[in-house]
Amino acid sequence: RVRSIPKDRFPEIALDYPIELPDQYAL
């Protein structure tokens, strides 16, 4: 699953996962 993570909410995670994220991190 490919989703864009809101960097405002997860700046640290967004650095490691710019595009691809598991559903648990895809909000």
The total count of helices amounts to 1
Query: How confident overall, as mean pLDDT?
Result: 58
Helicity, in percent? 10-25%
* Number of individual domains: 1
Q: Give the helices and strands as they follow along the chain.
A: H
Structural class: mainly alpha
**pLDDT under 50 segments (min length 5)?**
none
Roughly how many Å is the radius of gyration? Answer: 8 Å
What is the molecular shape? Answer: extended
Number of extended strands: 0
Distance between the ends: 12 Å
How large is the share of residues in beta strands?
Answer: under 5%
The largest β sheet comes out as:
none
Task: Write up this protein.
This protein is mostly helical. It has one domain. It is built from 1 helix and no strands. The mean pLDDT is 58.
Short description:
With 27 residues, this protein is mainly α.
Draw up the topology in text.
Layout: H1 11-16
Q: Which features characterize this protein?
A:
27 residues; mainly alpha; 1 helix
